[in-house]
Amino acid sequence: MTDLAILPILKMNLGIAGSTWDRYLQTLLAVARKEITREGITINDSVDDDNLIVMYAAYLFRKRAEDSATMPRMLRYALNNRVISEKGAVDES
After folding, report:
1. Where are the domains of the chain?
2. pTM of the prediction?
């Protein structure tokens, strides 16, 4: 899905109604995609990857308001599992 298509899901995750934050949230979605790719993950058009992008963008949004910049364990596990499953896949061609 595009960032515009998953924007409402991110807003629900953050409990945001209205469109005041939309441009900033779209930027966070784009940053999340880049950061996930930088981790070595190939983003596919799947519900799992859309959810990973939303989780990462929500983390970035919440991080700006907290003193602790620690990534939530659930997000770190999801990223690690995604990297391992992608790198561990056997090419059967």
Report:
1. 3-87
2. 0.89
